[in-house]
Structures are given as structure tokens and as C-alpha cells.
Amino acid sequence: xxxxxxxxxxxxxxxxxxxxxxxxxxxxxxxxxxxxxxxxxxxxxxxxxxxxxxxxxxxxxxxxxxxxxxxxxxxxxxxxxxxxxxxxxxxxxxxxxxxxxxxxxxxxxxxxxxxxxxxxxxxxxxxxxxxxxxxxxxxxxxxxxxxxxxxxxxxxxxxxxxxxxxxxxxxxxxxxxxxxxxxxxxxxxxxxxxxxxxxxxxxxxxxxxxxxxxxxxxxxxxxxxxxxxxxxxxxxxxxxxxxxxxxxxxxxxxxx
Length: 256
Description:
Number of helices: 10
Largest sheet: none
Structural class: mainly alpha
CATH superfamily: CDP-alcohol phosphotransferase transmembrane (TM) domain
Shape: globular
Number of strands: 0
Order of helices and strands: HHHHHHHHHH
Strand content: under 5%
């Protein structure tokens, strides 16, 4: 199920896991498993991938990284199929993604001789890349009556959906806020006026999807397949240059 009305759907290069994720969600729709259970599955899958990566099983690690991406799509699909939106699930998913991103890069640092400083720079770069993609995507969804579980600016605790605990929502929001606030604010201040634009065109969103988490993981997996693991950290540092390019395109071409 798309997060956007059909008129505004675009080719999302990071969303290759949507179809298999939907299939998984469909199979789980009539079970007692929830989206949060599926999120836990992708956390476990990511950690297993790291174990194989550290021990030199690069192809297996690459496969599990892609499987993690598919399960990452399946949790949201299951939530929508069950008509059971959840702020706890939304924050849990984002927290898990950030922690796994850090662990993936830590593993790449461990198996190469690159500096830990470069690893940390790459982590910041990856998070800013993902924040840019999410920022523009959430603005688009909110402007065209798409999925609104995510908000343009996560600066207040949301009211819990029916069936979930407000205290749990508050807890997960607080954890999310600590981990993401610096990245969210950085993106907001780099392009405050983006939310006043007309709905972004499809070509722009497809470009932005190069920074989606799914595409980032696909690049990591491909590098592992071709035994280029020592280039992963330097690549993602350089890849961050496109942040400025995309923001300039938005400001110069897609004005409010």
C-alpha cells in the first residue's frame, strides 16, 4: 500500500523492498504478529548480517542486508493492512534504523584499516542523507493527504492512536528525539521553506530517493558482493555532497 495518492506516486529507488514486503505483510495479516514484531525481525536480521560481515561471509551478509530492507518495508505494510497505525511502531522503526546504521558502519570499520573518525563522519553523512529524503517525502505526504504517521517537524509528543499507550508513545518519542533531533533540525534550517512549496514533482522525488535507506543498504550490499568493503565508508562520506546539490535544486527550481 502506497503512502501517497496514486496521482503523486513516483519511482522510489529506495523502495524495491515494497513488493516483497507487501507479500510478507499479506501473509501475516491474519496472524497475531504486529508491525512491531516485524521491526524486531529486521533488527535481528541486521545483527546477523553484521555477524557474517565480521567473519568474512560477504555474500551472505549482503543478502541479509537486503532482507533487512525488505522487512523494513513489511512492517509499515502490515500496519496499514491491519489498519493499525502506531506512533510507537513509527519511532521504534526509526530508532532501530539509526542503531543498525551505526552498527553496520562500525562493522565496516572493524574489518578495514580506516580511521574511526572517518567512520563517524560517514555515519553522520548517512543520517543526514536519510533525513533529507525523509524531510521532503514527509512534506509531500502531508501536502497531498498521504500517510501522516510521520510529521514534518517532530517537536511535540503526538497523541497516542487508539489501542496504544500514551506513556509508551512518550517514551519512544523521547528516545527518537534524542537520536534524531540534531539531524532533523539541521535539515530544517538548511531548507525551512520547503514545506511551503507546491507538491514536489515526481522527477525530484526520484532523485531524492537516492538517499533513501533502502538504496543506501543496496549500495552497501553491492559493494560487499564485489568485495569493495574497504570503500564503503569513504564512499558514503563523498556521497554526502549530493545533499547540497539536492537542496540547491529545490531552492532554485522548486520555489514556493
